[in-house]
Every structure is written in C-alpha cells, then in structure tokens.
Design a protein that fits this description.
Elements lengths: L9 H9 L7 H11 L4 E4 L6 H14 L11 E4 L3 H14 L7 E4 L5 H10 L3 E4 L1 H9 L10 E4 L2 H6 L3 H9 L6 E6 L4 H10 L4 E4 L10 E7 L5 H12 L4 E4 L3 H13 L4 E4 L5 H12 L5 E4 L14 E4 L6 H8 L9 E7 L4 H11 L4 E3 L25 H14 L4 H4 L5 H21 L10
Parallel strand pairs: 1-6, 1-7, 2-4, 2-5, 3-4, 5-6, 8-13, 8-14, 9-11, 9-12, 10-11, 12-13
Bound molecules: adenosine monophosphate.
C-alpha cells in the first residue's frame, strides 16, 4: 500500500515523500482513511508505531480544505501529556505541513505566558498543548474553543497517569459538541475507557499495540546486580561496550543528578533531564542528544513517551519502573520504525516485584546475565510469569496519590505573590500546578506500592 491511496492531497504527499516515508505503517493505513471520513477513533497505538502522522496528516488535510480561522480561535486541538511531546508534535506538523499555510503552536507550562498568549490571540489553526497551561490560557481568555472542529487526545493514558483528568474534562466541556475526536493511548486502562466513553461517541476502535510491541526489533536483557553497585556496573558496561549513544532511565530526579556525577567521576560525560531542570535546558539537552553531541542521557519517566530520537540504539533501565507499561514505553524509545534496538535493565533484589510484573506484561521472561565482578550478593529470585502480588498494585491508587501529592506539595503562592495582581497570582499557581504533575512523575519511587 502507498500513501497516495489514503486520500491525502499532493502537498502532504510530497512532504512525507521528502521525509522518506514510503509506505504507511499499519495504524496509518487503517486510521487515516477513517479519520478523513470524519469518524471518531480510539486507537491503541504506541510511540514508534507512526501514531503522530496518523493524527497529524488527516488533521492537516481537513484543515487545508477550508479557510483559516479568526483571532483567538483555533480549529484543531491536540492535547499531549508533556512539554516535550507537544513540541515534537508541533515539529511534525511543520514537517508534514510544510507545503501548506496552516499555523500551529505548542502551548506548555514552565515558560513565559506572553508569547503563547499573543500567538493564541492572533489565531492559529492547530493548538498542541499540555492540558494545565492551555486551561490557564483559556481562563485568561486568550482563546475560545467555539470553532474547534477536531480534538486529538495523544497518549491519553499518560495524561491520566499524570493527573490531568480535571484539566482535560474541563477543556472538553468547553468544546463544541459537533466535532471529530481521535484518541490515542498506549494502553486502554479503565480510566482511559471511561474518558473515551464520556468524550467520544460512536468511536471506531483500532489496535496495533501488539504488532509494535518491540519483541522482534528490541533485544531485551537484564543484568542482576546489587543496588549499590549499579553505577559502577553501568560505567563498566559503557566503557566495555563503547556504546555510541544510550538513553538511561531512572525513577527520580535526585537519582538522575547523582548518577551524572557518579559517571563523571569515572570519566563518562552524561547529561540529565528531569522536571527539576528548566524547559530551555531540557530542550537544549534533548536537541544535543538528538544531534549526537550528548552520548549518554539520563532521564526520568517524563521523557519516556513520545520523544522520537532517530536510530537510538540502546535504552538502559537503571531501575525498573512501575507500572509495567512504563517499561514498554521506555524501551519503545529504541527499535523504532523497524530499526533494531537493544534494551538493558540493571536489576537488583529491590526490583524483583517490578520485574515480575513487567515479565507478566510482556508475557515472556527477559534473558538474565551476570557481569563478572558484579555478581550480586543479594540474589534476585527466579521470576515467574504468573506472578500475583500480595497487595495488588492498582494504577488508580498511584494516580490518586500522585494527585494528592501534587496538591499537598503545592507551595503557598498566596503568600509569595501577595503583592502581585490577581491575574498574575492565578497564573503563578496554575503554572505551579502543571509543573507539580511532572515533578510528581519524577519522584515516582514513593508512589510505587512495592517500595513502601
Ligand atoms: P511516532 O510513533 O509517531 O512517534 O513515529 C515514530 C517514528 O516513525 C518517527 O521517527 C516518524 O518520523 C517515523 N515514521 C512515521 N511514519 C512513518 C512511515 N510511514 N514511514 C517511515 N517512517 C515513519
């Protein structure tokens, strides 16, 4: 099958052909013709499956057919969980829409409001936004949603995990009822299904999750090691293997910063991105990593989804995440679009229960290795695929706690900004609200029921 059979017009076909896209991925082949017919879609699709083009291409096609909107209006709204993903989706819009005159903007927290606000006031065709900041700007009347024709919820499960449900539902409540809806989610959790049921009537369900789950393309293995030897083992592996590049995942932002200095002490240069760093620094580091200037990037879960790094050969899990889906998203940064990838996990006894949940989720055991000189003193038990935890971890519990945590850790802005105007006060506190969501995602360890 070729893209020309999907119903896309020449300006878009030319742009994607220049990008070297020869054939549509399965989700693109299935979803694009349906989306172009105006259908509501709920798609189980992960990053790496070509999902961004799946919703961006029909969005561009449909918007290009009619005239650009007015001031303070937009015609398509794409909600994403993280700033990085919003920026990346916007870049895809620019690339796929380079032969069109549609305007798009990424709206996200952690940066100055003024330029985003002005761009919305001037009017754009497509808004790609994280829910918290968009809601703030809506409250400030920078945008009205009465001309929204199309809503895309990208990585819906991740947005819900991050506690954005209230922002999302409040935004959706203000959209015109007559609109098209596309929902993409790596997993179809109960929460996602509930959101979909309330938001997306008469949807067609599509699923390509299994096909893209990486087994054939991603060589997964793990090394058992004592927790206090992990950084030494990682340095050893990096030096032994001379890996050209690796994305290294770790649960907490403090852990990320510590690991950078531990690697540096052993002569390995690394960078870290997490919610404690400014947006500008995170963007710069990501750009440097994508350009190959940074070889080893240590990241908390906030970058696990959506971030697309061409030909990333290796993902390392410095610790094992909870829930198990997070592991799938992490390793999905490699082995993308048909390329081969490798995913290595450093597993200590503490990681055992998460390991069992991950292997159960994958439906296969991960090959184990021991590295000479790093044999664990605390043995990691043999894992079983039908593992049943004593206290069954419930995603909702973790999410609920994340929300509670983000509320309870909210600094008292009423005191700090008491001399400022009311509007700047509300901006500050809501900015803090969106940032806390990322920050609680970065401080995940205590949210993991196994680590309590
Ligand atoms: P995504 O799942 O949207 O994050 O896309 C994963 C990667 O696949 C990105 O680098 C895209 O540029 C690339 N991609 C998406 N669709 C295609 C296609 N049909 N052919 C080749 N590469 C693609």
């Amino acid at each position: 099958m070729s893209f020309s059979t999907l119903g896309l017009s020449a300006p878009i076909l030319n742009a994607i052909s220049e990008l070297g896209y020869l054939t549509p991925t399965p989700i693109q082949a299935e979803a694009i013709p349906l989306a172009l017919k105006g259908k509501n879609l709920i798609a189980a699709a992960q990053t790496g499956s070509g999902k961004t083009a799946t919703f961006v291409l029909p969005t561009l096609e449909m918007l290009a057919r009619s005239e650009t909107q007015r001031k303070k209006r937009a015609r398509a709204l794409i909600l994403t969980p993280t700033r990085e993903l919003a920026v990346q989706v916007c870049k895809s819009i620019e690339a796929y829409g380079k032969n069109l005159t549609l305007k798009s903007i990424a709206i996200y927290g952690g940066v100055d409001y003024a330029p985003q606000k002005q761009a919305l006031i001037d009017g754009v065709d497509i808004v790609v936004a994280t829910p918290g900041r968009l809601r703030d700007l809506y409250t400030q009347r920078a945008i009205h949603f009465d001309e929204i024709e199309l809503l895309v919820l990208d990585e819906a499960d991740r947005m819900l995990d991050m506690g954005f449900i209230e922002d999302i539902t409040k935004i959706i409540d203000t959209l015109p009822e007559e609109r098209q809806n596309l929902l993409f989610s790596a997993t179809m959790s109960r929460q996602v299904r509930e959101l979909a049921k309330d938001t997306i009537p008469n949807a067609i369900h599509l699923s390509v999750t299994k096909k893209s789950e990486g087994k054939p393309n991603i060589d997964q293995w793990l090394v058992t090691v004592d927790k206090d030897k992990k950084s030494a083992l990682l340095s050893h592996l990096i030096q032994e293997n001379s890996w050209p590049q690796a994305l290294i995942f770790i649960e907490t932002k403090h852990g990320a910063a510590k690991l950078v200095s531990q690697l540096e002490k052993r002569g390995i240069e690394a960078e870290a991105i997490h919610s404690g760093r400014t947006q500008a620094i995170r963007e710069q580091i990501l750009a440097d990593f994508k350009a190959g200037k940074v070889k080893y990037l240590i990241s908390t879960g906030i970058s696990a989804r959506g971030i697309d790094i061409d030909e990333l050969p290796l993902v390392i899990n410095y610790d094992l995440p909870f829930p198990a889906d997070e592991y799938v998203h992490r390793i999905g940064r490699t082995g993308r679009a048909g390329a081969a990838g490798e995913a290595i996990s450093l597993v200590s006894k503490d990681d055992f229960k998460n390991l069992c949940m991950i292997e159960k989720r994958l439906d296969h055991l991960i090959e184990r290795k021991v590295v000479e000189g790093f044999e664990p003193r605390k043995v990691v038990p043999v894992s079983v695929l039908n593992f049943v935890p004593k206290n069954k971890p419930v995603r909702d519990v973790a999410a609920k706690e994340a929300r509670g945590r983000s509320e309870s850790t909210k600094p008292d802005y009423s005191k700090r900004v008491s001399s400022k105007s009311k509007s700047s006060k509300s901006r500050s506190s809501s900015n803090n609200r969106s940032d806390n969501k990322e920050s609680s995602a970065d401080n995940k360890l205590p949210l993991n029921p196994w680590n309590r």
